[in-house]
Every structure is written in structure tokens, then in C-alpha cells.
Specification:
mainly alpha, 4 helices, elongated
Length: 76
């Protein structure tokens, strides 16, 4: 995929385009099925990222703290 098209997709998804740019970009996508398909995949990927939980398991945190204490690193 062209890096300029990828950048445009990201700018659109992050609402970084003006209204006029958005209109032109959507027109471009409507007339380029392969780019539209890539855009839909990118959008679905971004939407799935928002549902990811970033809370580590307690056991993982304990291992990190133990390892850090071996090296004398303070966890406070």
C-alpha cells in the first residue's frame, strides 16, 4: 500500500482531516475498492484495539518486582 494512502487513512481515522479533505478522501475510497478494503481492515483493527485490557496479571507484576529487587531497583 502506498505510504501516502496509509497516512491519509490514519489521518481520517484520527479525525485529523478538514471537512474538505475528508470529502475528497471518502470519494477516493468509494472509487478504489482495494483501498476501501484496506481502509475497512485498518478501521476494524483500530476498533478492536480500544477493547484490549492492559491490566497485567498479578503473577507477572510479582515477577517483575522480584527481578527488580535483585538488581536493587526501588519500585516506589
Amino acid at each position: 500500500m502506498n505510504s501516502l494512502i496509509t497516512e491519509s487513512m490514519l489521518r481520517y481515522l484520527y479525525n485529523e482531516m478538514s471537512t474538505e479533505e475528508s470529502k475528497h478522501f471518502l470519494f477516493f475510497l468509494e472509487n478504489n475498492p482495494s483501498s476501501m478494503q484496506q481502509f475497512v481492515s485498518m478501521k476494524e483493527g483500530m476498533e478492536s484495539l480500544s477493547s484490549i485490557s492492559y491490566k497485567p496479571q498479578r503473577k507477572s507484576v510479582e515477577k517483575i518486582v522480584t527481578y527488580a529487587s535483585i538488581d536493587g531497583i526501588s519500585m516506589q
